[in-house]
């Protein structure tokens, strides 16, 4: 069990960014968790965010329960990617989303994917319920709120977070920070019949995934940077 107090860390994130939604702790594991409730039926991974926040429970799913979205299934390493999907064939030949096969293949080549069959279970819970370091902290908010977190990341590591707009956000905001150790943001998939009909989010919201080990230092930066930012902005206003 971690010595960090995730209830306090969650409260700090919400206080200094004025988040409307609870941050969610995500765990990718080989063994089933002992302190979470198993989902029944079939669902999409992104729906787990809403289920965890709405019921304020720690929930998990195995390969059998995460068949509601083929993309999330293979992105999180729960199963094999079909060869035609890896080649980009469906997006070009079946769905007509990509204008050419080469574009479809380029798109897939930029997707972060956890190694197939290396993960057996996915767990999601509100961050304030976490008892050990999450693999990724998923945050949903407005651009102004996410920008404060990005600024804290920048001032801790001295580099900008990655952005994967247009990609599946299970890849951009879960698999990418899990694999790279870098904070990554995404803009969601705003298309007709897409994820907003499954996981609830609005057109003025975006997402960010924070590697678990960076949560504490980013929180510290959030607490320290408000005074500095206010001072800088006051000086700039005087000069204008």
Characterise the protein shown here:
Helix 1 runs parallel beside helix 9 and helix 7 packs across helix 9 (215-239). The model has no long low-confidence stretch (mean pLDDT 86). By secondary structure, this protein is an alpha+beta fold. An eight-stranded mixed β-sheet has the order 2-3-4-1-5-8-7-6. The chain has one domain (6-80, 116-239). Helix 2 links the parallel strand 2 (37-38) and strand 3 (59-62). Helices cover 41% and strands 15% of the residues. It has helices spanning 6-17, 47-55, 70-75, 83-87, 89-94, 101-109, 143-157, 169-180, 215-239, and strands at 24-29, 37-38, 59-62, 121-126, 136-141, 162-163, 184-186, 206-211. The termini are far apart.
Q: Which strand order spans the largest sheet, edge to edge or round the barrel?
A: 2-3-4-1-5-8-7-6
Please write the string of helix (H) and strand (E) elements. HEEHEHHHHEEHEHEEH
Q: Supply the number of structural domains.
A: 1
Residues in helices, as a percent range: 40-55%
Number of strands: 8
In whole angstroms, how far apart are the ends?
Answer: 52 Å
Which segments are poorly predicted (pLDDT under 50) over 5 or more consecutive residues?
A: none
Question: Biggest β-sheet: count, sense, barrel?
Answer: 8 strands, mixed
Overall pLDDT level: 86
Tell me the β content: 5-15%
């Amino acid at each position: 069990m971690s010595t960090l107090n995730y209830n306090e860390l969650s409260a700090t994130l919400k206080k200094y960014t004025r988040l409307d939604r609870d941050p969610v702790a995500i765990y990718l594991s080989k063994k089933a968790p002992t302190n979470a409730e198993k989902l029944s039926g079939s669902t999409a991974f992104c729906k787990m965010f809403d289920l965890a926040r709405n019921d304020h429970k720690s929930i998990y799913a195995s390969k059998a329960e995460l068949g509601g979205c083929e993309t999330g299934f293979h992105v999180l390493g729960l199963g094999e990617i079909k060869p035609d999907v890896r080649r980009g064939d469906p997006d070009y030949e079946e769905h007509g989303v990509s204008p050419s096969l080469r574009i479809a293949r380029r798109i897939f080549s930029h997707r972060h994917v956890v190694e197939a069959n290396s993960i057996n279970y996915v767990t999601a819970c509100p961050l304030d319920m976490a008892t050990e370091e999450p693999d990724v902290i998923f945050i949903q908010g407005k651009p102004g709120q996410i920008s404060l977190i990005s600024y804290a990341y920048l001032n801790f590591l001295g580099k900008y977070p990655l952005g994967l707009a247009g990609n599946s956000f299970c890849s951009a905001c879960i698999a990418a920070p899990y694999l790279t150790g870098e904070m990554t943001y995404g803009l969601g998939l705003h298309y007709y019949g897409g994820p907003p009909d499954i996981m609830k989010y609005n057109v003025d919201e975006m997402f960010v995934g924070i590697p678990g080990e960076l949560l504490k230092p980013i929180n510290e930066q959030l607490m320290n940077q408000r005074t500095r930012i206010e001072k800088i902005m006051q000086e700039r206003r005087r000069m204008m």
